[in-house]
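Hey,
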Amino acid sequence: MKSNDVPEIVVSRLPLYLQTLNQLLRDGKSVVSSSELGDRLKMTPSQIRRDLSHFGGFGKQGTGYDIISLMESLRSILNLNQIWKVVLIGVGHVGQALLNYDGFSRKGFEIVAAFDESPKVIGKKFGGLEVKSVDLLETAICQIPVDIGAITVPAENAQMVCDRLVKCGIRAILNYAPVALEVPESVQVSNIDPVLKLQKMTYYLK
């Protein structure tokens, strides 16, 4: 099945499955049923089986899923069997937090370059990485093959930065700016806006 034939909501759940399987493995389990996965994820077993059926057959009736085997399959499906290089634009509070976070490397992602326009941060190091001037963006990215860009600049600058990243060949963008970005169909954008998530939750706090 082609990747664009799989519903986006299904793809979005695969990392949750992988995360849960990893926890089960740490708990000493080697096999898990769709019922137990469902209990952990607050989902129905049938939904889990439907999701996985998009990618072939996994597990056996009555015996469940071999955790290591399923994790390997999911990592392959999600293209996580390699280190993905990330470039970060915007080294304010959010950008600095991302640079100082060591969880990316454990999950297969490496921030290899960081850029900003402010003299206050250019030349400084965060998470062991020296911040470069955004004027050097195109030159630096051409020297370092990279597929993912993280945008943590103010909303008014986000589209301009996005356009520059796309021209450099970036194919996936993690957008922390509170604005909808316009990109070609070939570029994936994931928006991270905690305020929107909070506003969604407050609906249920009546």
